[in-house]
């Protein structure tokens, strides 16, 4: 019996030792609208965020990040982006074929905003200006921002979702992801126009699409980014181009969303949202990155908009019906299995 207890005790220790506890934020500086990508060749995850040429952060394990001296964009790419608008934000990584791509927002105003694609043969760049994909001055879609591009492996089609106060839209891209597809049409897939909801609680942004077990999940952020109303919502569809329905079967195009991560003015972390990618570990657990404010929301409301949005890492769970959910108490940190 003693031998059995000793073996069980050792097994317990070994099992626990395979996990590492971590604390959020995992990047403790302004890292709004994070995006990350894994490089098989180096074994590192690389992340960039909103900002004109902030250096890459990299990590071997998603929870310990180090800043590099590598900047993603070439000088000529920065000049061309700045010539298109003063505000540059919400980059997103994609790899299509042999090219690494970054999709980025360039904005002067809601009515004067566009999405630009940059290209590189290597993950760490430098990325060169490639094309303007879509422009609000031509489409009339307010806030043509926050791009997310993905490929449907079953059809080979490349899709881009984007948008905010004019609604989340989807449009097909060319197979190389560098231009719109021939005869491409814009489709409103989620979120209300701000003219219909000044509170922004049913106005979405920061869209992200993820495929799992035959379902396509559309994640988005609802509310105001600078306060505790900001929250992550989700819907899903059997098709990559929707319609995306909530857990209750309501259409996200009508402003509905199943809330899975929210906060209150009393929380240490408030306003979680604009999630980046979901990564799967070797044992099948899934983790999402997103940005969040840290501090006392009630302390000084005049400083809310200047409060840095830092990057959190959090495990995302799945129920028996394949609906995602978070454990709210893990917003301050969690555990992850060591490779």
Lay out the secondary structure.
Elements: H1 2-17, E1 19-23, E2 35-39, E3 44-48, E4 57-59, E5 65-67, H2 75-84, E6 87-96, E7 99-109, E8 112-120, E9 128-135, H3 136-139, E10 148-151, E11 158-164, E12 167-173, E13 187-190, E14 204-212, E15 215-222, E16 231-237, E17 258-261, E18 269-273, E19 278-280, E20 286-294, E21 309-318, E22 324-325, E23 333-337
Antiparallel strand pairs: 1-23, 2-3, 3-4, 4-5, 6-7, 7-8, 8-9, 10-11, 11-12, 12-13, 14-15, 15-16, 16-17, 18-20, 19-20, 20-21, 21-22
Describe the structure.
This protein has three helices and 23 strands. It is globular and about 45 Å long. The chain has 339 residues and is mainly beta. The chain has helices at 2-17, 75-84, 136-139; strands at residues 19-23, 35-39, 44-48, 57-59, 65-67, 87-96, 99-109, 112-120, 128-135, 148-151, 158-164, 167-173, 187-190, 204-212, 215-222, 231-237, 258-261, 269-273, 278-280, 286-294, 309-318, 324-325, 333-337. A hairpin with a 2-residue loop joins strand 7 (99-109) and strand 8. Strands 18, 19, 20, 21 and 22 form a five-stranded antiparallel β-sheet that branches.
Summarize this structure as a short list of keywords or feature phrases.
single chain; 339 residues; mainly beta; 5-stranded antiparallel beta sheet; 4-stranded antiparallel beta sheet; 9% helix; 42% strand; globular
